[in-house]
């Protein structure tokens, strides 16, 4: 099984996060996003969460105002991918708080770019080269936490006030 | 919140993110981003940017890039950041480069060193970051640089590192299988890793390895089964549970692997039954993930050697899926059903109602097409069990909100179940659906499926022509031009063949149907065209056609038919037809192809007239056209015009030889040796001319290359050359004998010697050409490796050819053998369910009760000869039931007539791939000869001067059009091999290509 790309788009069609595991040029990427958001955002809630697209399949799932999409080969197990999405979301959720908060975070501009980096790292722990590498939530969380602590040390060395504030609010 | 990592970004960045978040339109967003790019460009170029600041810039670049803009100006800074000592910055650097760069980027070489260093780091997080980058960035050339370290890391104490090392190795295998071929045993070892995470990750590479070569991993079956058993029994740590399912993702992967290993292997499959039964029994159906595992178990059950108990469980689960109101599950159910009917066709019948539900769903939006009877919801509502009512209710919902994906899946299933007893209903519905959708990609696909089914199962010529009409009418511009050629061939064969009975039958039915058709809908263009083309008796319809916008390749067909048969029945005067053809050419002033067709049509008519001893008067408009085309920018048009003029001056005997009437289907024998020129050569030598020296004996090798170059450029321009290298060309520089391409066939398959040996012996291998072939080979090797595993868009045709070239397998046959499994005669016990008459009728027509074996062999899909076809096919059912699909692929060399069946990939290969993708290359090449026709001085091209798109066929059929069609044959692209191979086989078994194996031409026509 290979996931060709992961796409997070808002209900308005705005891109929130992209990760491309297969080579796409910048131009193709924009086209893919445009095409898919056209198809996916218009689908009703009762319909199935799969879309056939250019000989591939895109599995999507909506969380609040955010759509998580993954593109897979036509003969893959769609339900499994649907659950990989959910798995990812649960890990994000575990990391950031409740699902509702997830929505909040994703809309919360100040946290946007921060979250994005972090989400990238989490995604990197979950998928490598389009393959699911880790299916244990705890393991992913542990590695991410280790990375965070690392970041902490690095930052403490470097200074700073904001860090102290962050520590205080923890 | 457990997160502090990213704070510290400047206010500026926050504002940027905020303003983009609040942007009202894409244009506004773009404006903001462009401004941001300007800022970043300026800032990033400043000297001595603080590292911390730089990190922020790079994250902003990532953001810009994500929003679809080019941030390449900052890539180098991201690369630099990976060199940073601070882990914090390094990680950002790695993140950015993995997002920015792909494996072929020039900057990668600058990172390799850093990666090497980081892989040795004491800090496992650094190693992890480096390994993540390795997975994304390391390409074939740089693999050796990091490979030893990655292998070493397989034994790292931290499981996170081991896992990533496995994934990196897997990635290497995907990129360049040969580079790690000596390390594959590591994957086996890692399967026994203490950490379940590492074991789970190892399943990814193993899956790939096993799909490539299942036989060498059979010994692992017991281990896999054991692991699966343990997983299912919850022996793994609780952390791997997901929604109360024990490690479902690992289960799914294991099931996939087992499906591969058990395919066609009774003994191996025997190990799996127990654990599969357990999964079917225990798996909970309330959660999505449980159903995902169940679905995978069904796939596995349908792939391995069938076991009735397991199959029953699979069928049971499938029917639960189908009964579900959840569209996701319905979808999976339809898919599962498609897999199961391959094994036991009866299942479809048991679930006919559920399938019809999905189909009716499809009909509800087909109102635009009055031909499809609409089964309304009301008719169902009156009489039924509670479950029926819920279905009806869900149907009602779907009506407001049609689920396209589900519908497509259903059509895919129907496509798989099509046989001659239900083809009419199914194709009718497909066309109805085709009309209703706008998505061109899918429209194309469904149109080609309609055509395929129609060709394969058409119950009558009448129906076939009607169906083709409809397809042309509604998706004409999307249908591959190949169809037009098929049509031409059908017409040509219909008229030009010795099988008079079928011929006249076709003709009469062809005439009759369009008549009725025109009466009913006078505005249906293609039907008018059909009329015109089939007997030339409705020429007045043609001008209407031309005035209306008509698919231009149809015009091409019309021109060709008019040229070939316009005067055949004598109803219309020559000048009338020529006038029409001139009209056509004038109406398509910008379309060289149409003009070329028209010109050739005129030429043929003139030729036939002169040959019949009549005088041809040139109409003034025709003369104008000829004059105009003589000055055309297109060399092809010019040549045609000149050829016509030259032809007019010939006497009738010559013409009769050059362009025999109604002979487009006759075979051509090419005197490849050009022995008819011997006399001329002899005379020249006597007069003191230099005798010809073969290339090998000449000193200047380079001009050989020059000589061949034009064709090679054509080839490499359009795709990689995967076909085998041609044998050296025969010496005479005046000809490019096309037969040389057919002699290549001998390289590929063992054809009986006497057929081709003559050609081979007459071509002593010349070292020049050998060197050239070698050169091509070398270059290809590199390319092939690099792209060896197409990850994104696979080109099935090409890969098929590759494998053939290597002499490994005939994957075409494999595909075909596999897909043939859908051709089952169905034994139908009628299942009486209380449903409305409408629904039952529909069910009856779809699932039919015809148990007679009414399959037609895929190769003999021409309706014209449906008569003798039925007996031709081997008893497929028995074969398939006793012998699982995979094994059939290894059924190496079936007896010749079967080989014809098997080796024809066309009717079946379209199932999952986009068939048009495969053909893209061919379309190009078929056009090519029109514009790139080598100006040959001889009259010969006139002779093959039927539509030159068609001339590849013509080349094989008619003699003498050596130069022009030789070019075509050589240039035909990847499929040339298949076609030629089939041709060779056909010859071997003594089959006339025109008669018993129409598919042959389908390929050749490309």
Automatic annotation (TrEMBL), chain A:
Subcellular location: Cytoplasmic vesicle, Clathrin-coated vesicle membrane; Golgi apparatus
Signal peptide: none
Transferase found in the keyword field: no
GO biological process: cytosolic transport; intracellular protein transport
Alphabetized CDD domains for the sequence: AP1_sigma
Main location: membrane
GO terms, molecular function: clathrin adaptor activity
Any one cellular-component term (Gene Ontology): cytosol
Topological category with respect to the lipid bilayer: Peripheral membrane protein
Domain of life from the UniProt record: Eukaryota
Record keywords, A-Z: Cytoplasmic vesicle, Golgi apparatus, Membrane, Protein transport, Transport
Positions of the AP complex mu/sigma subunit domain: 2-149
Function recorded in the entry: Subunit of clathrin-associated adaptor protein complex 1 that plays a role in protein sorting at the trans-Golgi network and early endosomes (TGN/EE). The AP complexes mediate the recruitment of clathrin to membranes and the recognition of sorting signals within the cytosolic tails of transmembrane cargo molecules.
Family: Belongs to the adaptor complexes small subunit family.
Subunit record text: Adaptor protein complex 1 (AP-1) is a heterotetramer composed of two large adaptins (gamma-type subunit and beta-type subunit), a medium adaptin (mu-type subunit) and a small adaptin (sigma-type subunit).
Name this protein carries in UniProt: AP complex subunit sigma
Species of the source: Apostasia shenzhenica
Top-level taxonomy: Eukaryota, Viridiplantae, Streptophyta, Embryophyta, Tracheophyta
UniProt gene name: AAP19-1
TrEMBL record, chain B:
GO terms for biological process, alphabetical: intracellular protein transport; vesicle-mediated transport
Region described as Disordered: spans on this chain: 787-825, 846-914
Composition bias, Low complexity: 899-909
Clathrin/coatomer adaptor adaptin-like N-terminal domain span: 46-492
Pfam family, one: Adaptin_N
Keywords tagged on the record: Golgi apparatus, Membrane, Protein transport, Transport
GO cellular component: AP-4 adaptor complex; endomembrane system
Subcellular location: Endomembrane system
Residue ranges with Polar residues bias: 791-822
The organism's place on the tree of life at top rank: Eukaryota
Subunit text: Adaptor protein complex 4 (AP-4) is a heterotetramer composed of two large adaptins, a medium adaptin and a small adaptin.
Similarity field: Belongs to the adaptor complexes large subunit family.
Function: Subunit of novel type of clathrin- or non-clathrin-associated protein coat involved in targeting proteins from the trans-Golgi network (TGN) to the endosomal-lysosomal system.
Protein name, per record: AP-4 complex subunit epsilon
Taxonomic source organism: Apostasia shenzhenica
